[in-house]
Write a structure and sequence with these properties.
Length: about 280
């Protein structure tokens, strides 16, 4: 009987070890293979920082723009690679533009009182900004000014970074993130240097296939292009919900952004804006 008991004990010990090995090694390997074949749905990535993001989004909905900007900036510093980081960047960009292109007070703005002899271009040159940015910040429908008008003026230090692989055009202000724009269409040569340094050389506006100038009646609602010293990366407009048609066929090569994005971006950059193109 002792030998039978010893045999049963050995079977229990070695059988348990074999079963444990199966679960630890073979079952894990089978699960990995099933996941690679798409037979198993991977576990969802935890949404770290979800409550913080929702709180920041709520501040924006409530019109508390400076508070929303601070909350989103803090969120991205805390969760730079989180599942909602890209969404937070999109929202932060919208908040930054909401603050800039409005009469919402902020540290980066100054107030200017129109004096005799002032015209929009003269004020823009004096304060190192652009006429269109002044117009959009103050909700002006035309270039006419009146003595005593009080204008908000800002002179941000914008630069563009075009990221080819994620298909993003990132706008920096003083080296810090300001807003990102998503490329919807691309027509660039297959072989490109890993890094290209360029500048904005022209802001182009089109209406019914003809070029129109800033300050004219046709300029409002025109189709915009942003031409760079690297012609392969001209930023051009493609139709979106607000602009179902655009007034100009796309260039032979370049990057297509929504018409609303190019219109907005064209009011922020100028011929001094530097551009870096990377993978």
């Amino acid at each position: 009987m002792k030998w039978l008991f010893a045999l049963l004990l050995a079977l229990i010990i070695f059988g348990g070890a074999a079963l444990t090995s199966y679960f630890i090694v073979f079952k894990q390997e089978i699960a990995v293979r099933q996941e690679q074949r798409g037979e198993v749905t991977p576990e969802p990535t935890p949404d770290f920082g979800g409550p913080e993001f929702e709180a920041a989004a709520k501040l924006r909905q409530e019109g508390k723009l400076p508070e929303a900007r601070n909350a989103l900036t803090a969120f991205l510093q805390k969760f730079p690679t989180g599942t909602r980081a890209d969404e937070a960047k999109d929202l932060l960009g919208e908040v930054n533009v909401d603050i800039l292109l409005s009469r919402t007070p902020s540290p980066e703005k100054q107030e200017y009182t129109v004096k005799p002899g002032d015209v929009l271009q003269k004020i823009a040159n004096k304060l190192k900004t652009t006429p269109e940015l002044i117009m959009r910040m103050n909700n002006l429908s035309g270039t006419m000014l009146h003595i005593g008008d009080r204008l908000y003026v800002s002179h941000p230090q914008f630069a563009l970074v075009i990221q080819r692989k994620p298909k993003l055009v990132v706008l920096l202000n003083g080296g810090a993130f300001f807003k990102q724009y998503h490329v919807r269409e691309e027509k660039v040569p297959a072989k490109q240097p890993p890094k290209i340094t360029a500048k904005v050389v022209d802001i182009m506006a089109w209406r019914d296939g003809k070029r129109v100038g800033f300050g004219t009646r046709e300029y409002n609602g025109s189709t915009r292009w942003i031409r760079l010293t690297s012609p392969a990366y001209t930023l051009y407009a493609v139709p979106d919900s607000a602009h179902p048609t655009v007034g100009m066929a796309p260039p032979p090569s370049g990057l297509g952004l929504s018409a609303s994005d190019v219109e907005e971006l064209s009011s922020l950059v100028n011929k001094q804006t530097t551009v870096t193109i990377t993978d």
